Amino acid sequence: MYEESKGNKDDNKSKLSNTSKSSTSQIKVSNKFENQSSLEYKNVKSNLFTQEMELQQTLLSHLSKRIGRSWRDTVRYLNIPEYQIDAIQNKHPFDLKEQSYEALKLYITQHSDNNWKINLIHALEKARRKDLKELSEKLILESNS
């Protein structure tokens, strides 16, 4: 009887050993998938950030070429303080394109949340630049597809 229970103990040890090996391999496989999905998430996040930066650059470029003197009204509607508008004008006194580019870039860097697109479109509409509002909407929609 003693030998029989000793045999049962050996069987139990071998079952336990197999179970722990199985659990270890499951953990390794699980960790592999977690690492892979974490890497995929980082790649997607990086791609979205890159797309967002490209959209910002495209919008800044197109708007600064076309906005002219309306840039002051537009950035006022975006709540850029008057002293910052004056500083931009003084920095680039005879270059409307550079003034508008810098002012819009300032807005985007200060408001990096996702609402910057909507706020920009509303500001262009309030500044009576429907043409630029429609251009911005088109560029934003194209970037999302």
Automatic annotation (TrEMBL):
Low complexity bias: start-end ranges: 15-25
Region (Disordered): 1-29
Xref: InterPro entries: DEATH-like_dom_sf, Death_dom
Annotated Death domain residues: 56-140
Basic and acidic residues biased stretches: 1-14
GO biological process, one term: signal transduction
Superkingdom of the organism of origin: Eukaryota
Listed name of the protein: Fas-associated death domain protein
Source organism of this protein record: Apis mellifera (Honeybee)
Lineage of producing organism: Eukaryota, Metazoa, Ecdysozoa, Arthropoda, Hexapoda
